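Model it.
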Amino acid sequence: MNKSYRVGIVGGTGMVGQRFATLLENHPWFHVTAIAASGRSAGKTYAQAVEGRWFMDTPVPANMRDIIVKDAQDVEGMKAEVDFVFCAVDMKKEEIRALEEAYAKAEVPVVSNNSAHRGTPDVPMVIPEINPEHAEIIHAQRRRLGTQRGFVAVKSNCSLQSYVPAIHPLMKYGVKDVLACTYQAISGAGKTFETWPEMLDNVNPYIGGEEEKSEQEPLKIWGRVDGDKIANATSPSITSQCIRVPVSDGHLAAVFVRFENKPTVEQILEDWKNFAGEPQRLKLPSAPKQFIHYFTEPDRPQPRLDRQLEHGMAVSVGRLRPDCQYDYKFVCLSHNTLRGAAGGAVLLAELLCAQNYI
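Modeled.
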């Protein structure tokens, strides 16, 4: 596809915003022309705004260093310079909802990393390989907002993007019950070990709001477009525990599944091996060639070894075996700031461009 878009990053100075910047530095379709952040960063160059708090392993992108950061509230100023924006702001949820809708109503499409609109019935929450058809709800959202181009689309919670993709190809067997315990990296809280030293040699058994998201968001992903809303699925029943662990990047999940029609181990492995979605069919720039990778080694996947698989956009699975209470158990891993956050949003934007919503 011969595509070219002017792109803005709203919330460009935070950890996820920085990840957006590095991912978009050499993107074949998307070219960053504007960056916005809080008022304290406005007026500075991007390099100045992130000086002393650049969290990425690679330098500030050369083609963004001298961009003058705008105030995130300057919707009209951003509108003049972009075709759409990625949003990763650190604000209260009601403020995020208002800001994202302000961009949408100004006819600027928003692809959001934030959770504020995930529960909005006419906002699609998309994992591109799983529910690309949910983008259809954009038509209803535009009617509500009174827009021609503008809309808000969101990616899902970062932790469930490790295990929902592994469960999805198995839904045809009637997944009834899921228990998912996630072991989440500190970058999911926007932290590094330098900024959060108390996580060294420690485990925190509480992540506010995370378990509710893990139990509810998959039901929207597995739901269906019903008129002017996404109707959530009523099953499977999901329960979760979410734990913060001393790992820099990569969310691991221990998953237990019960089926109505129990498949064999061989069937499950074949389903994982063969699963592909619209990003693979369309050969989108950020799409992993093989979405789900299964490891036969008993001690894999591991965050340090496997989180960068396919540039951090693949899902790793291992340790599939029968369980004495559920039918099967296995472990999953995804890179939380790539597949789970900025990378997943970039892939979603690529899908929306290919579908002509942007």
